[in-house]
Amino acid sequence: MTVFSRLREDIAAARTHDPAARSNAEVFLAYSGLHAVWSYRVANRLWRAGLRLPARLLSQVTRFLTGIEIHPGATIGRRLFIDHGMGVVIGETAVLGDDVMLYHAVTLGGKSRHGHARGVRRHPFLDDGVTVGAGAKVLGPITIGAWSTIGSNAVVTKSAPPRSLLVGVPATIRPQSPETVESARGGTLEPEYYL
User: What are φ and ψ of residue 165, in 5° steps?
Assistant: First the structure.
């Protein structure tokens, strides 16, 4: 996939997820979540090439400009959309599948001071299509199954199967209705709760 086709795909994903988006130009110029993802891609290439300090410096400049901190060592799939974005933190060993959506103030972090050994996964894995509501904290080397939804301000410390709804502090797992899953995929049905 070329750089330009990837940019077009990201812009299309933003317009799909955000009904306030009025044009491709607006999304390209004004969406800090996309700017952070695009900067992450450059930083991630530097990181994988062994240029760790430049990668970290780029991620810190991006954090300053956008309010979004994505560690260059994280693994992120296609069409990640970060809505509003301010305060989002994605840790070094986090893995995000395709079509993940994060709202503002989400933390994908570690939960132990003792798990800092190199090569040890300390951060969550979000499978394809996961949506994480504003202010939610997803902590530790857990797995959130595909097309799951994490409610606003939930604190998630345990893995969840696909199509789960996670709400509360600590989060409890509930199955989602098929209508909610279709809505997350871009359908017209609205879920019964607000993220």
Answer: -115, 120
Which structural domain range is residue 93 located in? 3-184
The secondary structure element, H or E, covering residue 167 is: strand 164-167
Residue 29 belongs to what H/E stretch? helix 24-30
Pairing of strands 149-150, 131-132: parallel
Give the CATH number for residue 28.
Answer: 2.160.10.10
pLDDT in tens, 30-39: 899 999 999 9
Tell me: pLDDT of 190 over 50.
Answer: no
Do 98 and 77 touch, CB atoms closer than 8 A? yes
Domain count, the chain: 1
The tens digit of pLDDT for each residue in 124-150 reads: 999 999 999 999 999 999 999 999 999
Starting at the earlier edge strand, list the strands of the sheet with 137-139.
69-70, 89-90, 107-109, 137-139, 155-156
pTM for the complete prediction?
0.84
